[in-house]
Amino acid sequence: MQDATPVAHPTLYGPTPSGGVRIFGQRCRQCGRVAFPRQAYGCETCGAFGADLVDEDLEATGALASFAQVHRHPGKDIDAPFVMAEIRLTSGPLLRCTLARRDAATLRVGALMTGRLQADGDAPAELRFSQAEA
Amino acid sequence: MAKRLSALRPVYVVGVGNHRYQKHSETPYVTLGLTAVRSALADAGLVWPQVESVFHATCLLGMSPTRTMLRHLGATGIPMQQVENASASGSTAFRNAVLEVASGITDVSLALGVDKPAPFVLGASRNGLDTLERDRVAAFTHFALLAQTYGAESGAGPEDFARVAVKNHANGAKNPFAQRQQARTLAEVIEAPPVAGFLTPLQCCPVGEGAAAVIVASADAIRAHGLDPRRCPRVLSSTSRTERVYEPASGFDAALTEETVNAAYAEAGVSAAELDVVELHDAFSVEELLYVERMGLCARGDGARELKAGAFDIGGRVAISPSGGLLAMGHPLGPTGLGQVTEIARQLRQEAEARQHPGARTGLAHMVGVGAVCLVHILRNEA
Ligand SMILES: [Zn+2]
């Protein structure tokens, strides 16, 4: 069974029994589009909805499509610097997310990335991607 | 059967007026708007009672600010409405005014952009869905991600992006309506601490306040009111599209631009090579390189090289953002798309003074807006 690890975005991802992370995606039965996040409104490609949109757990692996070192950020409660990245999941969807590291040195587009749950202190665990071990 | 603009009656820009874009101030929006409208009426040689409808582009003034501003011109009872379409609000108001005249519903319509900075909420943030990047992708970070991708594909580096800002600040220094009227060196642009990725502050547009007004009219009105047709460029096309599902997803701004511009070329019967002046959505420097390529103004991957060679300067092959663009003229939201049209009209009349692109005859205005939307207009001086 799923353990009780609290996560920062419980509608977007959760822990696996083996200590990994699964991303909550969905597949359209009509057109085959794999999408993230999960939603019931309708498929952006073909408009199918309801029972045509089926839950699918996505692996947190993909390729780094782009990244930006953010030096300044206008939002409150968010401290720069951090690295915003685009990751093309192996299953298809493009995610925008914060990387585990806070500096972009040595990153390169195309690198294989893997995500894991990372908790700082008592804060809920966040999905954070890093360059996969070679 | 759906029709193109060219199948309806011709529409002309007959008057343009501006209130300078500037930092947020105590100036009431009413003053900004009345300044631009009175200036456009004087430019056209029209008086207020000859205007038959108003489309007012604004994102941030709040509910229903239009009539309580324009009543001070004399409350003539004409239809007025607000238009909101994010950064493309002004372009959308212009399209509405053009379509109303083209359809024959009115002979003289006003498209007006007036805005002032204020706190706002993006509608999409209330869509009931969480996101991984929630609140962490500022507009400059979105375009820093695109700059990284563009750089990886084309080999462009920090200086290539910075040169867009150098050119557009040089143009803005000659524009009395620009928020930033100071020329900048490459060193000034590039050596400032970056905000995100390649982008430094002078590669990000200022969002302030201001106003821009454009009066459009039919040929009947030009004759009836005794206007000079040589000062009245024709609107050859008006196209408006929204984002589809593209691959790769992150390049939607460029993909949406390409298909909207291609629709505009088809409607106008104009090719990229015929354009003399282009005002495009350069809210961030990288956008100019992305869009000139997708508009067919140079080959894919050649944007930075052509920019460096001067192809996009005033007096070059095609002047890109002779007004200074969003980077230097500024981006006060509602007025921005209309400010582009005021610049193109002046260029096509040969009235742009120190910014004049010699022999300008055909111009294109392009805006994208968050959501995402894209609007493109092509104008030509047929006189
Ligand atoms: Zn579908």
CATH class of chain B: Alpha Beta
Give me the side-by-side strand order of the main sheet of chain A.
7-6-5-8-9
Strand order in space, largest sheet of chain B: 1-5-4-2-3
How much helix, percentage-wise, in residues of chain B? Answer: 25-40%
Described by its quaternary structure, the protein is heterodimer
- Unreliable residue runs of chain B: none
Termini separation of chain A: 31 Å
Radius of gyration of chain B: 20 Å
CATH-assigned fold name of chain B: Peroxisomal Thiolase, Chain A, domain 1
Q: What is the CATH superfamily of chain B?
A: Thiolase/Chalcone synthase
Residues in helix, % of chain A:
under 10%
Number of strands of chain A: 9
- The coarse overall form of chain A would be globular
The overall pLDDT of chain A, averaged over residues, is 92
Please tell me what the overall shape of chain B is.
Answer: globular
Low-confidence stretches of chain A: none
Percent of residues of chain A in beta strands? 35-45%
Overall strand count of chain B: 10
User: For the report, how would you describe the main beta sheet of chain A?
Assistant: 5 strands, antiparallel
Question: Would you give an account of this structure?
Answer:
The complex is a heterodimer of chains A (134) and B (383). Chain A has one domain. Helix content of chain A is 0%, strand content 42%. Chain A contains no helices and nine strands. In chain A, strands 7-6-5-8-9 form a five-stranded antiparallel beta sheet, with no helix packed on it. In chain A, strands 1, 2, 3 and 4 form a four-stranded antiparallel beta sheet that branches. In chain A, strand 6 and strand 7 form a beta hairpin. Chain A is globular and about 40 Å long. Chain A starts with 12 loop residues before the first strand and ends with a strand. In chain A, 30% of the residues are buried. The model of chain A has no long low-confidence stretch (mean pLDDT 92). With 383 residues, chain B is an alpha/beta fold. Chain B has one domain: Peroxisomal Thiolase, Chain A, domain 1 (3-Layer(aba) Sandwich), CATH 3.40.47. Chain B contains twelve helices and ten strands. In chain B, the strands form two sheets. In chain B, strands 1-5-4-2-3 form a five-stranded mixed beta sheet. In chain B, strand 2, helix 2 and strand 3 form a beta-alpha-beta unit. In chain B, helix 3 crosses helix 12, helix 5 crosses helix 9 and helix 8 crosses helix 9. Chains A and B meet through strand 5, strand 6 and strand 7 of A and helix 4 of B. Bound molecules: zinc ion. Zinc ion (ZN) binds next to loops of chain A.
